[in-house]
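Anyone up for a design puzzle?
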C-alpha cells in the first residue's frame, strides 16, 4: 500500500491533468491504516500534493484536502513544524476555506507540541495570518482560528508570544473591522483567560478585558447583551470570578439589574444579566449569591410573574438551576408565600401556554422537585412535597394528563417530573394512591417514540432503586416494577398464534 501511495504521488507530479490519479491516491490513503502511514509519510515527497491545491478545479482541491488531512495527521507535530511551515502558511492565504481549515488545524497541532511551538515562534507571519482569519466571512474559519490561537495559552512561552506587542496590534486591527469581528476577538481573549490564573493575568495586562467590561455599559443594546454573555463565560472559572469580583464587575451587573426597571430596552440584555447570576449561584453558593445580590432573585420572580415570554422562559430556566440543589431549595423556601404563589403561576403556564413554554415549566418543576437519596432529610422531603402540592389539588393527575397529550416533548417532560418524585417516599405514596397510575407507568404502549420509552423507563428505574418502594407499593406492584426494569424500555411481549388447517 505504501508503494502504491508513493507511485501515485510521482504520477501526480508529472501529469497535467492529475484528477484521476488524485482520486486513486485518496482511495489508497483512506484505506491505509494510520500505523502504516506513520511510518510511510516521513519518506514521501508531499510538495506535488500541496502544489495541486492551486488548481482551479474545485473537486481537485477537495480531494487534495482530504488526502493531506489524512497524511499530515499521521505525522508527529515536530516533523510538521520542521517540514511544512511554508506550505501551511500558503494554505492560510488560500481562497478556499477548506484549505484554510486544514492549515489551521495542523498549526494547532504544532502549537500543542513544546518543540513545535518554538518553530512557530520563529514564524510570526504565520500567526499574523491566523489572527486575520478571525475576521473571515465564514464562521467556521473564524472558530478554527480562535481554537488554534487558544492553544498558546497552555504554556507561558506561548502566552508571551501571543501577547507580544506586534501580535496584539494585529489583533486590534482585525477587531476594528466590525462589531461582529470585535466580539470574535473578545471570544478569543475570554477563552484564553479561562485557562488559568496566569493566562488571565496576560489578558488583563493586554487591556482587552477592560475593553470588554467597558462594553457592558455601551450605548448599543445588542453589543451590551453580547458583552454580558462574554463576561458570563469568564465567570465559569474560579480565577475568572475572583477577578470580576475584584474589579467590581459583579456589583456592576447587580446595579444593571436594578437599573433595568427604568430602561425600556432592558428586555434585550436582562436575560444575560440573570443568566450571569444564575451561573454564579451554581458554581459558588446559591445562598451567598442571593443574599449578597437580592436584586437577582427578586428580578427572577418578577420575570416569571410578567408577560414577556422571553423573560419568563429565562426566569424558569434560572429557577430550575437555582433549585436543583439542596441549598438552592432552602434559599427559595425562605422567600415564603411569594414562592408558593410563583409555583401556582408556573402550574398555570404548564397547562395553558405554548408548547415550548410548557416544556420549560415542566423541566424547571422536575429540577425543583429532584432530591437525591443522600439529601432526603425530613425538612427537605417536607419542602418538596409542599411544593408538589402547590401545583394542583390533584398534582399526580395534573402531570399525568399533560403526559397523555399527543406531544412527545410534553410527554417526556411530564414523565421527568414523576422521575423527580419517584425516589421520595411521599411521591411513591401519591403514585400508589392514584388509581391507575402504576398501570400507566408500566404500559409500554403509551408514548411510542424512543425518547418517550426512555423517559418512562427512568421513572421505573427511580422507583426500583428506591429503598422505600417495596414497602409503600406492596410486593405485587413492586415485582411488576422490577420486571419492567429487567425487561428494559423496548420489551415487546411475544404473541403466539395457532395455525388452523384450511385457513387462508
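Challenge accepted. My sequence:
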Amino acid at each position: 500500500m505504501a508503494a502504491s501511495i508513493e507511485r501515485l504521488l510521482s504520477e501526480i507530479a508529472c501529469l497535467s491533468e492529475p484528477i484521476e490519479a488524485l482520486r486513486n491516491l485518496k482511495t489508497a490513503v483512506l484505506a491505509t491504516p494510520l500505523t502504516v502511514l506513520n511510518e510511510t509519510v516521513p519518506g514521501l515527497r508531499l510538495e506535488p500534493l500541496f502544489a495541486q491545491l492551486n488548481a482551479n478545479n474545485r473537486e481537485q482541491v477537495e480531494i487534495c484536502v482530504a488526502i493531506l488531512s489524512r497524511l499530515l495527521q499521521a505525522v508527529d507535530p515536530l516533523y510538521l513544524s520542521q517540514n511544512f511551515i511554508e506550505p501551511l502558511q500558503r494554505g492560510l492565504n488560500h481562497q478556499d476555506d477548506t484549505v484554510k481549515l486544514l492549515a489551521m488545524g495542523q498549526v494547532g497541532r504544532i502549537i500543542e507540541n513544546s518543540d513545535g511551538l518554538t518553530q512557530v515562534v520563529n514564524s510570526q507571519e504565520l500567526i499574523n495570518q491566523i489572527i486575520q482569519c478571525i475576521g473571515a466571512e465564514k464562521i467556521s474559519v473564524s472558530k478554527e482560528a480562535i481554537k488554534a490561537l487558544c492553544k498558546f495559552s497552555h504554556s507561558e512561552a506561548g502566552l508571551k508570544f501571543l501577547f507580544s506587542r506586534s501580535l496584539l496590534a494585529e489583533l486590534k486591527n482585525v477587531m476594528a473591522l466590525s462589531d461582529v469581528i470585535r466580539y470574535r476577538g473578545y471570544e478569543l481573549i475570554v477563552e484564553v483567560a479561562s485557562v488559568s490564573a496566569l493566562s488571565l493575568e496576560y489578558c488583563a495586562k493586554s487591556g482587552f478585558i477592560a475593553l470588554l467590561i467597558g462594553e457592558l455599559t455601551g450605548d448599543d443594546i445588542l453589543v451590551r447583551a453580547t458583552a454580558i454573555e462574554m463576561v458570563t463565560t469568564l465567570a465559569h472559572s474560579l480565577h475568572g470570578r475572583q477577578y470580576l469580583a475584584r474589579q467590581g464587575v459583579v456589583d456592576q451587573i447587580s446595579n444593571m439589574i436594578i437599573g433595568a426597571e427604568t430602561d425600556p430596552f432592558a428586555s434585550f440584555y436582562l436575560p444575560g444579566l440573570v443568566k450571569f447570576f444564575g451561573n454564579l449561584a451554581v458554581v459558588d453558593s446559591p445562598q451567598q449569591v442571593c443574599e449578597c445580590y437580592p436584586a437577582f432573585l427578586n428580578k427572577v420572580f418578577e420575570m416569571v410573574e410578567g408577560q414577556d415570554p422571553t423573560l419568563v422562559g429565562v426566569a424558569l430556566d434560572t429557577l430550575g438551576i437555582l433549585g436543583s440543589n439542596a441549598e438552592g431549595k432552602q434559599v427559595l423556601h425562605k422567600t415564603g408565600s411569594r414562592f408558593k404563589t410563583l409555583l401556582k403561576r408556573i402550574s398555570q403556564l404548564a397547562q395553558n401556554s405554548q408548547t415550548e413554554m410548557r416544556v420549560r415549566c415542566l423541566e424547571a418543576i422536575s429540577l425543583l422537585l429532584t432530591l437525591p437519596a443522600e439529601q432526603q432529610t425530613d425538612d427537605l422531603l417536607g419542602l418538596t412535597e409542599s411544593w408538589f402540592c402547590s401545583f394542583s389539588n390533584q398534582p399526580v393527575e395534573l402531570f399525568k394528563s399533560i403526559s397523555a397529550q399527543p406531544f412527545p416533548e410534553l410527554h417526556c417532560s411530564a414523565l421527568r417530573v414523576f422521575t423527580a418524585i419517584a425516589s421520595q417516599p411521599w411521591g411513591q405514596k401519591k403514585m400508589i394512591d392514584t388509581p391507575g397510575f402504576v398501570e400507566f407507568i408500566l404500559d409500554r404502549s403509551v408514548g411510542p417514540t424512543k425518547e418517550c420509552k426512555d423517559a418512562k423507563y427512568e421513572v421505573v428505574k427511580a422507583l426500583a432503586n428506591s429503598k422505600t418502594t417495596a414497602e409503600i407499593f406492596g410486593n405485587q406492584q413492586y415485582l411488576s416494577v422490577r420486571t419492567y426494569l429487567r425487561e428494559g424500555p423496548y420489551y415487546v411481549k411475544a404473541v403466539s398464534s395457532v395455525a388452523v388447517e384450511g385457513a387462508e
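A detail worth pointing out: The CA atoms of residues 5 and 145 lie 31 Å apart.
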